[in-house]
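Cross-check.
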Amino acid sequence: MQEQKTKRRPNFILILADDMGFSDIGCFGSEIDTPNLDSMARDGMRMTQMYNSARCCPTRACILTGLHPHQAGVGHMVGDCGVGPAYQGYLRQDCVTIGEALKRGGYCTCYSGKWHASPGIPVIGEPQFPVGTERNPYPLSRGFDRFYGTLAGCGSYFYPHGLMEQDRRITADDEDYYYTDAISEQACRMIRESGDSPFFLHVCYTAPHWPLHARPEDIERYRGKYLGGWDKLRGERHERIKSMGLLDPRWPLSPRDSGAVPFDELPRKRQEWEDLRMAVYAAQVHCMDRGIGRILQTLREMNLERDTLVMFISDNGGCAEFLNEDGDGKKWPAIYRHTARPGSTCHVGNTTALDPGPASTFMSYDLPWANASNTPLRLFKHWVHEGGISSPCVVRWPGVVPAGQIRHDACHIVDLMPTILDLAGVEYPEEYNGHRIQPMEG
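Predicted model, tokenized:
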């Protein structure tokens, strides 16, 4: 990085996409229209070897603490595995979060979106441990001043369960409500209300994690674009990635995953339904990018653009799971029928008799499209092959990060917290709240 030219301590915005593949944004080879992330890439830097921890919860715990997931207490998911603190399923007391560290250093700390670093709030019933207690922490109990979002891993975009603002449970009563837009709007509000203090804002979208939910007008933008199928899409993305200088041109495209059939062997009706599935997924990414544009515009309006480091990454690779985070793949997802708005119904499962997209369905885009999302890499989320652990990374800081740069140095999300604390001039504590704190790993 070049010499900092700002007068005040920098602000930080760390944006996290959910289950998004390596090549799902335009500046990493996608056909999906992401003009705001593309502009960030032109004005800043792309990193081609930013690595994550392969699944939602471990990655989030790692980002929040600067430790590896087992050190943070979330070695697997957010259930207690009963085998000790490495797998307890919530943040440990002998770690300090980036919110806690920056707050001690005089920063306003804000969180908009998905948490998923504790048991949270179940779809049915009340949490076993109250939200905010040691065994069920949430942003306000771990160093953040502002919070809007959900604690769970996923849910309806039109009627998210367990929605919170600060310490209050709230309901998405607006018929036009869409979670991705709400996350963006609340993030903008937090920037505007940050006052004179420097701020750290963690924006955690659920997009494009299943279910396939998007606004009709966004879906129509992409309907028909994927009738060529996943094989054609993978080839086109691979060529763009090479032409952008993101990949050594000598590298061949990885073989189609053995779990994906050739697209041209499918009946025409099935091809049209598959096209629609990917169109909804693309719409979710497009909407997220539109929200990122609003965040960048808010920085410009507040004259904070040159004072703010903005970073975008994904928590893991594209997801090939059939609505299956940690269950048996058949019975477990049925709980999501309870995520519909009262008086409405929700059909859970990938059935060709229904169109994906509206709140009345709860579908995923499945393995073949995830294979395309991760072009040119192998395998998917929860594997520690490149397709599971490689994040597209875009960094923008006008006047500090050189414009248009591509870096191939290996980096890991464990490096984010120490980098931010160093730029903020904030010391990492050896003790916090009476606990001896583990040193950062990055």
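The first helix runs from residue 35 to 43. Confidence is low (pLDDT under 50) at residues 1-6. Passed to J.P. for a second look.
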